[in-house]
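Figure S7 source data.
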Amino acid sequence: MTSDLRVSMLQMTSGNRHAANQVTVDEAAHRAAADGCDLLALPEAAGLMNKDKEDARRQITTEAEDPFLLTCRGLAAKYGLWIQPGSTPVKAADGRYLNHGTLIDPSGAIVARYDKVHLFDVFLEGRKPTGESDRYAPGTEAVLVDTPWGPWGLSICYDLRFPHLYRDYAKAGATVLFIPSAFTVPTGRAHWEVLLRARAIENGAYVVAAAQVGDHEDGRTTWGHSLIIDPWGEVVADLGGDAPGQISVTLDIARVAAARQQIPSLENERDYTFTRIGAHETTPA
Ligand SMILES: O=C(O)CNC(=O)[C@H](CS)NC(=O)CCC(=O)C(=O)O
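Tokens for the predicted KGT complex:
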């Protein structure tokens, strides 16, 4: 297994048309290649951030026709880069709309596909319900993909709050967990970094979480703070909350095994019985 993985992470303010987002990624891939990177990681909704369902659906195509993914595939091949395009909306053959993650290899081939499993249907104080499942159908498959740097686990944004997904990836040997996101500002402030660091620590894996930032054309504002976290839980890159940006860092994949050797919590797991003591069974004082 190759130990050094040089990653470039892009923090974006994606717009509600594909074309401008493609220009942003074109420049980012050029920079990643100039920095000697193996991999470029993008945020959730990198190719199209558009909460207007009708307007979005006029633009969303199948994966094969998607202009953003075609651009990413061309850039991967041009620069010999792996690209994790975060996610972008696509239409499935059966007509369902999906929040669609992929992994593209340096030949430009899509080698893995992951559709967001846990959709963001929450009720934040003082806000309209987010209703992501009104716009997308949920995926039903966890996807781990073998690479020269070990297996990588795919996920998207709100999946972060479902730790068993990452534990399943880690038990199967995942070295890197991708969590591309478009977090809200209030939940980002309160939960983002602590949840990401927890996923890295409890799984002894690198976490690569490229994020959307700032004020978007579709009216949303996102938290930013794209983070890369090492298997010991230390933040190795943070792009801040103010503006788009890009950072290139070298990850040492051998540190995954080192963390899991020191704290073998994945192996120390045990089965247990579950007992509930009901109030009706207690003896009154
Ligand atoms: O649909 C798009 O265009 C892009 N996708 C999103 O913005 C998604 C669904 S609305 N956002 C999240 O999952 C935020 C999760 C979050 O903020 C939390 O868990 O606290």
